Amino acid sequence: MKIIFITSKLNFLTAGGSILEFDLMYRTLLKWGYDIKVVTVFSYANKMPEPLPYKVVEENIMSRRLLGIQKGIFKILKKHENDADVFHIDGHLALYGAGLYRWLGGRVPVAAFFNRELICWPENVSKLLEQKQDNLFVTLKKKARWWTEHSVGMPLASQIDFMSFTNPVLQRRYEAFGLRTDGKVVIVGDPFDYRTLMRENGITEDSYRRRNKRAGVLKIFYSGRMAPGKGFDLLVTAFSLIKNKEKFELILGGDGPERALLQGKVKELGIAEYVSFPGWVEKQQVFDFYKQADIFVQARWRTEMTSITLLEAMSFGIPSILPGGGGLEWDAQGAALYFKDEDCADLARKIEQLGSDYDLRNELSRQCYVRLGEDEMNYEKKIRELATGLEYIIGKR
């Protein structure tokens, strides 16, 4: 089976966790004997410091507008259809161009992997930081795009032959927006090799429990791009409500457009002595922070989204505190405490609860490996399900 993956870019240096999960997917299928080719559509953003075992074809869509991007996707599919048994696209990026391709008689079946939101959905915001308000023109433009994607784009996207989602919350969100999945779906999670990460960092399933503290300052850690919607504002506000702050050290890793605002917020809240901002660091340094962290808190992310950052923390056995009811809870399940989404007071209570309960931290750490060991989180089993789906739609051609 010849599979051509259509993806945005391969930036292994500064991009997020999606690149690593895609790379794991490609390598796994290649190992199983599939013919893999990867086409990057924004190839000027590629950063591939080491040779890759699969073939990469660099295309360049120069447009940044919705119609221009989808037109470019359509052309790329037509250009490469003689070399493919099946196309596999990044769902949020290429769904309309791919749907149009199939609707107009494109002969190669298309599968789409959905691991994030559509741009037209409500934007990520940090409600506790200063926000720039849209003017009337921008507001109307966003409403028009939402209507266009909902009313025109979704019927086109529903022509895609097979779909995979990272979690069922995200699937339901797309379906509520109008995507017809018609029983052609598999939930694959985030392809993630936690055992290799543990081995490379000298972590065992009892590493955290052996270093768990009965006394002393507990380190709370969260790291990510400091951008709207990542929850840093919620976390620092919640921390300011904790009564026994001296029992904790809050480490906020990463960099981004909101870093200065967050540092100002920390000073305004009077908690600067408890909070550190190490900035952007190499990945291995992030792993070193995980080895020292006592509690991991991801205070916010889009409700429908999962998180590679959380899966990394779980691989190190760190008990977590997360917003309930969404993709993060689907990821962690019994390995975390959950607070009411966007409720700073409830988050503060959960930090105090976990910080004061040695046995609970041990149990949540143990549950990390219970969850990671389940079939739902087994990347090889889930990629096998994806491959079976691809073979099925090829057979229907």
From TrEMBL:
InterPro entries: Glyco_trans_1, Glycosyltransferase_grp1. GO terms for molecular function: glycosyltransferase activity. It comes from the Bacteria. SUPFAM superfamilies: UDP-Glycosyltransferase/glycogen phosphorylase (SSF53756). Gene3D superfamilies: Glycogen Phosphorylase B. Residues 212-367 form the Glycosyl transferase family domain. It holds the Pfam family Glycos_transf_1. PANTHER family: SULFOQUINOVOSYL TRANSFERASE SQD2. This is Glycosyl transferase family 1 domain-containing protein. It comes from Candidatus Falkowbacteria bacterium CG10_big_fil_rev_8_21_14_0_10_44_15.
